[in-house]
Amino acid sequence: MSKSDKLTVKLYREDPYLREFEAEVTSIDGNGVVLDRTAFYPEGGGQEGDTGIVEGVRVTDTRMVDDRIVHILEAPPSFKVGDNVKCQIDWERRHRTMRLHSAAHIMEHFLWQRLGKINRLGSHVDDKKDRADYEYDGKLPPDELKAAEEATNRFLAEGHEIRIRLDPSRPGIRIWSCGDIEMPCGGTHVRNTREIGAIRLRRKNPGRGVERVETALAED
Length: 220
Ligand SMILES: [Zn+2]
What we know:
six-stranded antiparallel β-barrel, binds zinc ion
């Protein structure tokens, strides 16, 4: 792939609800395809890359490679650079990921309210669950986790709007906000907490000094 390609227009930024679109193929390298525009979210910020279909070929992952969004196909495609292709993301998977991603930010707010701002070491979200690892000495108290879960579910049911804005002082940084809660995040999110439904929290201990909080949809 040449470096001279223009950057892909990130359709998932303007409209995280876009499921189908058409695009022009700008480069192909083996199974990796770059488009002039895409609704496929590339893995980043702890959120998994989208899967779906490009012109009838399965996309198994989407990744950022050297600032370019690469759609990883199941097999080398028969289409060529310059072709217009029909694309579709796996919406069910993406929407569940959006619900869980938004829920995890809200969960963290209520967890911090109870335990203080414990340091998050990492996080990962897919369509099954969000997991967040915190630096923590000992065991997260189960009653505090339960209280955070209840507070989160009350808040979700209240139907708060979720907004994304750009940070004027830090170019490229997007701020996620909901009620009084805000944080920098470039992931995809639902518009309203009602869309999330209720969640369930679970604690795990992946190792010494680290406590993991898993957020899952209560309906599962
Ligand atoms: Zn986020």
